[in-house]
Design a protein that fits this description.
Layout lengths: L1 H16 L12 H6 L8 H9 L3 H7 L1 H19 L6 H7 L2 H20 L3
Helix pairs in contact: 1-3, 3-4, 4-5, 5-6
């Protein structure tokens, strides 16, 4: 858990200090390089950089789905932390419910299709 936390903090520091648009060494999307299409996660690095600099609208322009997914991802992390606390069962059951996970995956795939059809 400590290693994961350190990696998260390190990632936040990197994406705060370095702009993925201007940094040649930041990873590029292999799906886009091969097909020319945007994958559902394309723009995630740029959106994260924009969010860390308080540019919410700019982050949305890079990847709507990522920005809208942040509360769910935070809830997953909180649920994981609450597994060590006996009273966190309700949140854990809600966030990790199989139906919610399936809906999220379906929305992720749908976003990948929609963003290419509408050129978003």
């Amino acid at each position: 858990m400590l290693i994961f936390l350190l990696l998260m903090v390190g990632g936040i520091v990197v994406y705060t200090l370095f702009d993925p648009i201007k940094s040649v060494w930041m990873p590029k999307c292999p799906f886009r390089l091969l097909t020319g299409w945007n994958c559902p996660a394309c723009g995630l690095q740029r959106a994260l950089h924009a969010l860390l600099h308080g540019k919410f609208t700019e982050a949305l322009s890079y990847n709507y789905f990522f920005v809208v997914s942040i509360p769910y991802v935070i809830a997953l992390f909180v649920a994981e932390a609450l597994k060590r606390i006996p009273r966190g069962d309700n949140l854990i059951r809600a966030v990790e419910h199989p139906v919610l996970a399936r809906v999220y995956i379906i929305l992720f795939i749908a976003w990948g299709i929609i963003r290419n059809l509408l050129q978003v």
